[in-house]
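Narrative summary of target 7.
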Amino acid sequence: MRRSVIFLAVNVVVLGALAWWLVPEPTDRPDTGADRVRAAFEVQDGRRVTGPPVLSARKGAVLEIQIASDRDDELHMHGYDRTWPLRGGETRTVTLVLDQAGRFSAELHHAGIELTALEVRPQ
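Modeled conformation, tokenized:
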């Protein structure tokens, strides 16, 4: 019985020491997951009033676009074949995982304008 207790105690100490030794040291930079690219746009009378004409990101990033429009419309992201309805007088945030590299147009269908161009670089 006494040998079993000593054996168990030694194993607990050895496993504890191994666990402490194998645990990675913390980094100063927290893990934030995928890169995020954020942009805000305002559209009035079918024209972009604010917001960048070109967005740039790496493949794998998450794109978040906030759009305030004074009219109902649709945002269409070419190449990704995604469409989001927009309601006049409201702000809409759309999110898209950028899983394709290339240059894509983000178009407002009813206004017939390019809201912005999206340039996605390979990783």
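The longest helix spans residues 2-22.
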